[in-house]
Design brief:
single chain, 199 residues, alpha/beta, 7 helices, 45% helix, elongated
Length: 199
């Protein structure tokens, strides 16, 4: 892979070439876990940032999830949003005929952690090395989902700041924080239930 220019290097190069306005427009890449409860809050955040004149790339959406999003919100739900783009990266799972349902969550989590780093790294490289005629500014921030931690490694390689965005509800967060206590007290897993080891 060719040497990757950091966002700062790309901005400097763009300024030297007279593309100040493009280079100074903030560009946020939002990458949710590809499930509805993660995508929807990220889409709301992306729209708010877009309203504040950010260039937005909503990423991490395999094609079937993008289609499901448009189907649930209406095919014109993203009309009138210039500088708002969708990019799909493969999740590593085989495509099925059941494109209108969420994939098996444990398999999806395992697959994204193993297969998405290279695809996300390539996307950042492509976005940061776009031609000025494409009107895509360099990436200045990655907003990542806790379930998509591979983005941290890629963002650090490019010198791009990153922000963690937690989308589960308050009761979900409480469940996560108290889970170890439930295990210590023997309340979970329920007695007689065997937990399949996924490692």
């Amino acid at each position: 892979m060719p040497k990757v220019a950091s966002s700062k290097e790309y901005i400097h190069r763009s300024r030297e070439n007279g593309f100040n306005q493009l280079a100074e427009k903030p560009h946020v890449v939002c990458i949710p876990f590809p499930a509805h409860g993660h995508i929807t809050p990220r889409l709301h955040l992306a729209k708010l940032l877009h309203y504040k004149d950010f260039h937005i790339t909503l990423d991490g959406l395999p094609e079937n999830n993008h289609k499901r999003l448009l189907k649930s919100r209406g095919s014109n739900s993203l009309d009138g949003l210039p500088n708002f783009r969708f990019e799909a990266i493969p999740d590593g799972l085989p495509r099925t005929d059941y494109s209108d349902v969420t994939q098996d969550i444990p398999s999806l989590a395992d697959s994204t952690s193993k297969h998405c780093l290279v695809a996300f790294r390539n996307l950042l490289y492509r976005l940061n090395n776009s031609t000025p005629s494409s009107k895509i500014p360099p990436v200045t921030l990655v907003v990542y989902d806790g379930s998509m931690s591979f983005t941290l490694e890629a963002a650090e390689e490019f010198g791009i700041p990153k922000v963690f965005f937690w989308s589960p509800c308050a009761c979900g967060l409480l469940g996560y924080t108290l889970y170890h206590t439930l295990v210590e007290r023997g309340l979970t897993p329920p007695k007689g239930v065997k937990i399949k080891n996924r490692s």
